[in-house]
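Hi there, hope your week has been kind to you so far. Thanks so much in advance, here it is.
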Amino acid sequence: MRRLPGGRYVKTFARSFCTAGLLMGTLFFAASLTPSLLPRTPITQGAVSGAAFSAGYFIGVLMRWLWVYLGLPVPRFRLNLAIQAVAAAGCIGVAVYFLYRMTGWQNSIRAVMEMEPTEGVQRVQVALVATAVFGVFILLARLFSKTYALISALIHRRVPVRLANVLGFSIALALFWTLANGVAFNYALRAFDSSYRQLDALIETGPERPREPRRTGSEASLIDWNDVGRQGRQFLGNAPRAGEIAALSGRAAVDPIRVYAGLNSAETIEERADLAFEELKRVGAFNRSALVVATPTGTGRVNPPGITPIEYMLDGDVATVAVQYSYLASWLALLTEPGYGAETARVLFDRVYEHWRTLPQDDRPRLYLYGLSLGALNSDLSFDLFDVIGDPIHGALWSGPPFSKPTWQTATRERRPGTPAWLPQFRDGSVIRFANQFEGPDVPGAEWGPMRIVYLQYASDPITFFEPEILYRRPDWLAGEIGPDVSPELRWYPVVTFLQLIADMPASMAARMGFGHVYAPEHYIRAWRAVADPPGWSDEAIADLEAHFAQR
């Protein structure tokens, strides 16, 4: 085969791109530079923009194919070259303009989150990363095309051409899907699981093993200190002491009880739940005024800002129990297995509830549920309302509820007219209420029923407000008034906003305290006050407690 001159290689390569695809890709690229829920690093922005450009390019190619398939006129060759040149110039101009405006858009997010504005973002780095991502997608697309053509050609020897094309496309698609889902995805998932497992097993400089016999992890405990993992040691070892609580409240206090069983504490879910339950009885948890069944996040973490406030508000007279079910980060487990950990939460709740309901009603602790993120989802799935309606629990506090949480979805969808999706009011407010960092769960004129549920959520939390339908439909939380911690310049774009929020989900764990998926301890206080109604806490005392936790 005769080698073409270098210039002709360049022309041939340039002509291999679809003009309609480049135009549509550029529009998607430009839209991807507009704000989403959280600030983005140059690397993240480049990855999102590259994926958006690739999605737009694919749609443009599909539109051109449909145009040709319908037999509509196609520009002649020389005219086509002129169109390509004009399109290329236009694409470059649009890309440069939107890259220039990117800094202002990012600062619009930082402003509502009370962050210092950035002087500039690395536009060249964003462009290079986006180009690299698009290049990877193009290589994969062309590899798929070659594979499809080869398989179709082989099949065409025995079947008609159209049937060969359909079969070839189907086989190639199944092959690539199997490789992506069964090999690459599973390998990445195992890598994540291994890294989080190693991190969980890490014995770092931190809490020492408890010495008091009545504390979980001590020598007298049924649960070994080394088996609870890193997250368990942090939870058990950093509980506030009675002296700290009394110094703030001015009242007598006791040490709060914390019980935690790690994945290595027993072999099966049932054995871990039984172990935690027996430990609860050993340390006298059912003699406290309140008992909280906490469901950890995917990594096994029981969020201290979510539990410590109620320990202070009840003068330490509270016990909390949790059982680990995973090492994976919540956002990863949420995208891969939305019901991750529900069985563990359900078994633990059943053990605790069945014993609790046998105790005299006037001599048993008030029973609450707590969960953050994936823990909120699995805590919700741990019980059936119809199973407990005869002897209901007293309440639940669920923070950062994931978008797939069934009770949250129902309450948000059936909210009272005129209330925003990011802070809805559900029916008469007697069972479910919502709060955020700016407004508490109080509803004027509403009276609580026997069971109180409060959702603490930030409008800037993509774990809560992502939904698959954003791919093609504007979400309710962007209709009308938007949340106070959301950029006023955020707009919905089909496909693009979906990709932006996918990137926001892992980034939400590193947001500034009080925004994204990082829930501040002071914001839990009014939520717990509504759920548990602790005695002796005036509005002034609540404000002082909030100030104390904010300073910490």
